[in-house]
């Protein structure tokens, strides 16, 4: 019989509204590790829209209740099992295969060592907790689909999201210019300036871009070849309609929860391409070397000061309902669940 330890975990008991189905529970974790296994103590995990959709049962992969949420996060190795060579005790790690062995909103978890990425300890806590999904999504969308040159323009909506901010950072690092569209809000001028200070070249509200976008894009010194869409609904129309002939719109999300609308004229007379992007389609288990190289490159951008941590609100684990509600409202800072103390001593 293995040695069991108590571990707090946030779990949903049935599919539905996570504000109603999630609860803080206690589970037992067996620390008698098998070949290739490690024991991870999770430190911080963000609340992502994907987590909300997993709890609702509408995400592209299913997690059957009772189960824990969490598609990315940062943890510390507390114990290693036989045959583990890639990581060691006290290493900082994040998951490589959240769609296979996810559910990180818990204190302790036994995982396969080869399914983890060893983080550089010099990274900020917020970067370590969110590197898995958002920055990688922005990075690969900019690298894999449309050959861009320095001085080219990239148009995006949801520019103040985690992915949107990463797009601004990475474009600036690569020498591309960004045209950023955001939803109107009370403090919109403050947000506009924040994105400009981050490195965005132009920032419009949706209403401003709907009215003036075509004239603005026509004034650019080169054709607009790429747009990035994370909102859907009517927001998709100007994001696609202002592309140059044979341009490409990448779709990585649908924050509006409405179908993406595209003008027939954009498809027929401009022959634009619309491509859906799901990170894990490009990060399968068989592509681990590519995935690790991608995270190595993102780490270099962070450490060089070219990729920045987005504003986040740190929330104690026991206040998870507040963090979930704010994420679902969509008008708050990124919520970061603080699962345990990064500098706590191990008692395993």
TrEMBL record:
Name of the protein in question: Enoyl-[acyl-carrier-protein] reductase, mitochondrial
Q: Which PANTHER family match?
A: ENOYL-[ACYL-CARRIER-PROTEIN] REDUCTASE, MITOCHONDRIAL
Q: What is its EC number?
A: 1.3.1.104
Give the UniProt record's GO annotations in the biological process aspect. Answer: fatty acid biosynthetic process
GO molecular function annotation: enoyl-[acyl-carrier-protein] reductase (NADPH) activity
Stored SMART domains? PKS_ER
Q: Where in the cell is it found?
A: Mitochondrion
Q: Which residues form the Enoyl reductase (ER) domain?
A: 17-337
Q: Which organism is it from?
A: Bursaphelenchus xylophilus
The entry's keywords: Fatty acid biosynthesis, Fatty acid metabolism, Lipid biosynthesis, Lipid metabolism, Mitochondrion, NADP, Oxidoreductase, Transit peptide
Q: Which CDD domains has this protein been placed in?
A: ETR
């Amino acid at each position: 019989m293995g040695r069991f330890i108590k571990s707090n975990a946030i779990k949903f008991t049935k599919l539905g509204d996570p504000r109603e189905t999630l609860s803080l529970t206690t589970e037992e974790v067996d620390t008698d590790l098998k070949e290739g296994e490690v024991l991870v103590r999770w430190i911080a995990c963000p609340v992502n829209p994907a987590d909300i959709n997993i709890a609702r049962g509408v995400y592209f992969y299913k997690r059957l209740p009772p189960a824990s949420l969490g598609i990315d996060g940062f943890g510390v190795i507390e114990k290693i099992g036989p045959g583990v060579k890639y990581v060691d005790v006290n290493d900082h790690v994040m998951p490589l295969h959240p769609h296979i062995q996810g559910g990180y909103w818990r204190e302790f978890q036994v995982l396969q060592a080869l399914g983890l990425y060893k983080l550089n300890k010099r990274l900020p806590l917020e970067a370590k907790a969110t590197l898995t999904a958002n920055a990688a999504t922005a990075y690969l969308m900019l690298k894999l689909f449309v050959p861009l040159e320095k001085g080219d323009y990239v148009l995006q909506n949801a520019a103040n999201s985690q992915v949107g901010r990463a797009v601004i950072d990475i474009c600036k690092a690569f020498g591309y210019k960004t045209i950023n569209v955001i939803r109107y809000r009370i403090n919109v001028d403050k947000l506009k300036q924040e994105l400009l200070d981050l490195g965005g070249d132009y920032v419009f509200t949706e209403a401003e871009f709907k009215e003036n976008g075509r004239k603005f894009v026509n004034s650019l010194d080169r054709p607009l070849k790429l747009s990035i869409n994370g909102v859907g609904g009517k927001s998709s129309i100007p994001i696609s309609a202002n592309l140059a002939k044979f341009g490409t719109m990448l779709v990585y999300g649908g924050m509006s929860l409405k179908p993406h609308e595209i003008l027939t004229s954009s498809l027929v007379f401009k022959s634009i391409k619309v491509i859906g992007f799901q990170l894990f389609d490009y990060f399968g288990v068989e592509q681990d070397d590519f995935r690790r190289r991608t995270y190595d490159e993102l780490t270099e951008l962070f450490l060089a000061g070219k990729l920045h941590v987005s504003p986040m609100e740190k929330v104690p684990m026991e206040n998870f309902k507040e963090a979930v509600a704010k994420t679902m409202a969509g008008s708050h800072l990124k919520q970061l669940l603080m699962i345990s103390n990064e500098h706590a001593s191990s008692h395993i």
